[in-house]
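TASK: fixed-backbone design
INPUT:
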């Protein structure tokens, strides 16, 4: 069976994305990092692997996040019919992410001692399973795109790790600014959007369009959404607590109260 030209294009985008992210990891990130941050050279090999992995992750998050916003605001077909609307742009975005996830999985397995994490493997595989329905069947483009909005919180999470590994104290200005930004962005793109997402899901539930989605697609969509959001709520709680602690200790320091143990964690 011959592939239609659009499917071929999507496959090409995924493969190109995979190769690009490999190139960014192996060549571009080390080259750029040495020039931007001299501290990169003094990191251990394990830390360099994670550094490059996070640099690529930040680039992917910004690229896909901006594309997401464009679709959310300007792609009428998808916004009017969230289950079966013309998924051209969403498929392109999901294809980029698919290439990234496969590239990242490969790196996780190859550098397991440095960046191996069972949780990330499960996360990536669950996402790929859900994206199969978007890319293969063209289903649920609005919801797939909406989930990708969450990527906007990734750069702040990565930046926190960069500061930590470069030895910035937790109470330093850049670290605190990033911490607050992380809490705010995480809340906006993962928590505050939940009512919008689930009200669209509820509006579609039980309609003809809903029943045209095969059982596996419904499971991938509804169960993965709920599981991801339970994790998001747990993470938000941790981030908010961490943010509050650091701000409170910084305030104490400013007020001139001596810290009992010097720890701001």
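OUTPUT:
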């Amino acid at each position: 069976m011959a592939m239609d030209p659009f499917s071929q294009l999507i496959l090409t985008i995924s493969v190109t994305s995979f190769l690009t992210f490999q190139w960014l990891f192996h060549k571009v990130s080390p080259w750029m990092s040495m020039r931007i941050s001299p501290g990169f050279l003094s990191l251990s090999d394990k830390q360099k692997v994670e550094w490059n992995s996070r640099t690529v992750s930040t680039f992917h998050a910004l690229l896909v996040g901006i594309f997401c916003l464009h679709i959310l605001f300007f792609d009428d077909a998808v916004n009017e019919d969230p289950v079966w609307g013309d998924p051209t742009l969403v498929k392109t975005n999901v294809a980029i992410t698919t290439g990234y996830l496969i590239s990242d999985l490969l790196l996780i397995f190859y550098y397991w001692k440095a960046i191996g994490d069972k949780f990330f493997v499960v996360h990536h595989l669950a996402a790929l399973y859900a994206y199969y329905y978007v890319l293969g069947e063209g289903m649920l483009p609005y919801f797939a795109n909406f989930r990708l909005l969450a990527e906007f919180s990734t750069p702040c999470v990565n930046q926190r790790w960069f500061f930590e590994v470069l030895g910035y104290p937790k109470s330093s200005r850049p670290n605190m600014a990033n911490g607050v930004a992380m809490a705010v962005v995480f809340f906006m793109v993962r928590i505050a959007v939940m009512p919008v997402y689930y009200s669209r899901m509820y509006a579609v539930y039980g309609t003809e369009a809903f029943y045209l989605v095969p059982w596996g697609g419904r499971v991938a969509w509804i169960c993965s959404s709920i599981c991801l959001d339970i994790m998001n709520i747990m993470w938000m709680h941790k981030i908010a607590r961490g943010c509050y602690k650091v701000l409170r200790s910084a305030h104490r320091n400013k007020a001139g109260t001596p810290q009992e143990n010097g720890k701001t964690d």
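COMMENT: Residues 258-265 have pLDDT under 50 and may be disordered.
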